[in-house]
Structure formats: C-alpha cells, structure tokens
Amino acid sequence: MRLFLACHSNSSVQMMIKMPSSFFLVFALSSLLVSCQKQATERLPNVVLIVIDDLGWKDIGIYGSDFYQTPNVDALAREGVMFTNGYSACTVCSPTRAAIMTGKYPATIRCTDWIEGWKMKNKPLKVPDWTMYMDTSEFTLARAFKGAGYQTAHIGKWHLGEDSIYWPENQGFDINIGGWSKGSPNTKKGKFNGYFAPFGNPRLEDKPGDEYLTERLTDEAVGFIKNASSSTDGKPFFLNFWTYNVHAPLQAKEEKVAKYDSLQDTSFQQQNPIYAAMVEHMDEAVGRIIQTLKEEGLYDNTIIVFTSDNGGLIGRGKNKVTNNSPLRSGKGDLYEGGVRIPLIIRDPFSGAYGQVSETPTISMDLYLTLAKLSGISIPEKIESQLEGIDLSPVLTGHPTKERDLFWHYPHYHKEGATPYSAIRSGDWKLVYYYETESSALFNLKNDIGETEDVSDANEDVKSLLISKLEKWKDDINAQSPVPNPDYKEELESVSNSDEP
Residue 440 half-sphere exposure, CB side, CA atoms within 13 Å? Predict the structure, then answer.
C-alpha cells in the first residue's frame, strides 16, 4: 500500500456504532475497515515529470561534468535510479516531447522534426510533409492521469503545435502556465526577448518583480504544489515541469556567469561559463521543487522523473556551447551525443536508492512506467498502442525484456544530420544514411564514441540489423525522403528559420 491516510467514518457508520447490538457493532467496524482500506488504496502518489531542454548526457555532475555544478540533481540521483543508457526519441525537441506524451515513436505519429523545422533549400533529398503538431485525438499521458482523478498541470515549454488548439490546455492539462507554440522565450517570430522579463509569453502573464524566466516558472510550480497540498479535494497531482533552460539564447544572471568565469580551467572539456550558469539555474529550480515537496509533506508520496528532450548542443567556434565527450557530436546529429540523455527516476515506494542501471531506455517508456508506478489504469486499447515499456521492474532490481530501439529522422538539420534511420540492438548500433544509401555499424560497448565502423568484420550483424530496421519502418509505415528533382549541386545552399 503506497499511502496510509486517516479515515473518517460517515454518519451512517457512526449511527450503527452507537446501537447496542453487538452484531451491528461488528458490522459497522468491518465496514469502516473496508472503507479505510479502499480510500487508502485509491489515494494515488503525486508525479512530477521534469524535462530540461537541450540538456546533454554529460551536463550533470553525477553524469561526469567537469565544470557544471548540479548538487540538487545529483542528490535526486542518489535517492533513485540513474540510467546511463537513457535515450531521447529524437535528436531534436518536438518529436521527443510528443513521444513522451503519447508513448509512441515520432515516426508512428509522423511528428519527426521540430516544429517548424529547418527550411533547407536545394538538398539532394526532399523531406516528407510531416505532422507539425501533436494531434488532439491522442490519449496523452496527461489525459491518462486526469482520467484517474489527478489534477494535471503543465508549466514551461510545450512546442507541440503552432495553433492554440494543440496547446496543453487542450491536451489533457487542467492548468497551462507558459506552454505555447514556441520553443524559445520570444515575443514574435524572429524577435527574442530571451530569458529576462518581459517574457512576451501568451500563457505567462508578466508580473512585477519578474526577472529570469526559469525562476518565474519555478515560482509557478512551487505555488501549484502548495495549492495542491492545501486543497480539500484530496486529489493527487501530475505536474509537467518542462524548462526552457538550457536552450539558446545563452543567457543567465550576471553573478552566476561571473562565478563560472572564475572557475574556468583549460583542462576542462566543458568551457562555456554562460551555459554553466544556465545549468545552475536549472538545478536550483529542481532543488526548489524538491524542497517545497518536503515542506508540504509530499516528498515521500511523490514520484519524480528527471530527463532531457535531446542531446546537448555543441555549437561551433565562438558559439561553442557544451561538450558531450566521450559521445560523438550532439543535438541535431545522428550519433550518441544527439540522443543519449540523462534519466533519473525517484520512486519513494520501490526502495531503490542510489542505483545505477545500464538498461537502455527511450522517451516513450515514461508513459507506461509512470502509469504503472502510480497505479493508474490505462484503457486496454490505448495500452496496446504504446511503444515503450514499463521500467518499474528495474527500480526493484529486476531486468526488463531486451528489445531494440529505433530512430527515424527523414530530415536535414543545421547541426549535421542528413536524413537517417538507426537501430540499437544490444551493444550494436547501425545507422542508415539516406543520401548515400549506405550504413555504418558501431559497437557501443567497445566504442561509445562511434569512431570505428565495424561493418566489414560483422557482415552478419549488419545484415540482421538492416533487416530489423526495414521491418520496423514498414510496420509503422514510416515516411521517407525521396530524391529531389530540383537539386542542383553547384547551387547548394541553406536558408533557415531560427530554431526555437
């Protein structure tokens, strides 16, 4: 039983207890006990799902950062399970967010690129017309919790559709604070206010005293938790806390930037003091949420998940952002640096404290995992459509069934990706490149940096993984790029919109 709560007898039970008959007394006490047990069983744990934007696998202290300081996230990992083989469903944000909310691969719902996507001109391949929103017909994770009697709130970044009909309040959330179509804090297309007030967000009214966006969103999360704690309706809550940090533009408070300026060392792999300060802003937000849960007496009845939507952004030259080493590349590219991410799950009921799991996970797993950990039921038809697995056995030391993980990105990205598909099977990872109609095979156990294509020495493995990848794409009817009849190599150029 996850929570024992005080049970107050109703008036009819009280009347029977006052009767002299021992029969009625026994009956009343039995009924009262059953009622108490039922109420205790039905009182479900709270859930806080924290998704950080663009946070890389190595951007957390406990994951090996040599520069960024994240004491609150590190402490959370020591109280739960830290996954070292966590993956995002895509190398960019919107598809991963949709995967978390639907429990389905981006390719299945055809939301395969960030919304609105890069406008690449004169490329060898023509990308498909993908779905630039999360369809409101989806039975989202929020709808699942709301249907189970939870109060649902989204605070922070959304980025799952330009039109307001696709925003959180129309996708299963009772409350939406700060979630709209844009992926960066901006007022209108092409104009960025950045992280400092005024925020210019149609779902976040500016207030006196506002300064830094992450702090304001954290204030809202703290207020929501306190209100939920003091509410008399007894409802548990499901809180999506999805920060805009640490996405560009790189902006942080001056005192934090100065702190990391003073801490810089040429021996560090990670060097950007502004980005380091943004990571600290994020960590402080996590710490404040945890502290509020503790102060309100909710921490030991709250499941917390901490993760990211894609790998860390590397940047170039003077615009260098982070370093994902030993992983290859970063956000927007097809290698491990673009899709391997932190994942921490703290379930106070599992008894899992300070564990490290090498179980490969992917964004879609959070849907079924949170449902199972919380004890809520999902309609059988919906559950049969979910493409993730339940990770709750891992929290109690039990292995999950081995399965293959897939990626499908039939798009171009300015950070390096050309259209590709990929599969991870055990220690093997195969990448298929659509432009050249070729593939590469890596052994991640021996070569986490994907430096050596070992196809020639492992033709049987390569053939098997190609077969599996093709079958998966056929099964979900994945969209693929096609030759561009208007492509002219000598005139190849890039014309891009600003990515939010």
Answer: 14
Burial 227-266 (b: 16+ CB within 10 A, else e): ebeeeeeebbbbbbbbbbbbbbebbbbeebbebbeeeeee
Structure tokens at 451: 């430096």
Residues 412-441 pLDDT 10s: 998 889 999 999 999 999 999 999 999 999
Q: Which two tokens stand for residue 37?
A: 């047990």
Which pLDDT tens digit goes with each residue over 323-347? 999 999 999 999 999 999 999 999 9
What is the spatial distance between Cα 134 and Cα 101, in angstroms, rounded to a whole number? 9
pLDDT in tens, 201-252: 999 999 999 999 999 999 999 999 999 999 989 899 999 999 999 999 999 9
Domain boundaries of the chain, sorted by first residue: 11-38, 45-402, 406-491
Q: Which residue has the tokens 């039990």?
A: 398
For residue 232, the Cα-to-chain-centroid distance in whole angstroms is 31
Query: Per CATH, the architecture of 45-402 is what?
Result: 3-Layer(aba) Sandwich (3.40)
3-state SS, residue 433? strand
Tokens found for residue 499? 């990515």
Burial call 191-222: b when 16+ CB within 10 Å, e when fewer: ebbbbebebbbebbeeeeebebbbbbbbbbbb
Contact between 433 and 476 under an 8 Å Cβ cutoff? The reply is no
Measured between alpha carbons, how far is 405 from 198 in angstroms, rounded to an integer? Answer: 42
**What distance in Å separates the CA atoms of residue 440 and residue 438, rounded to the nearest whole number?**
7
Quick one: which H or E segment has residue 384?
helix 380-385
Distances in whole angstroms, Cα of residue 290 to Cα of each of 45, 60, 118, 285, 396: 15, 17, 37, 9, 23
Calpha distance 162→202 (Å, rounded): 12
CATH class of 406-491: alpha beta
Q: Which residue type, as a one-letter code, is found at position 440?
A: A
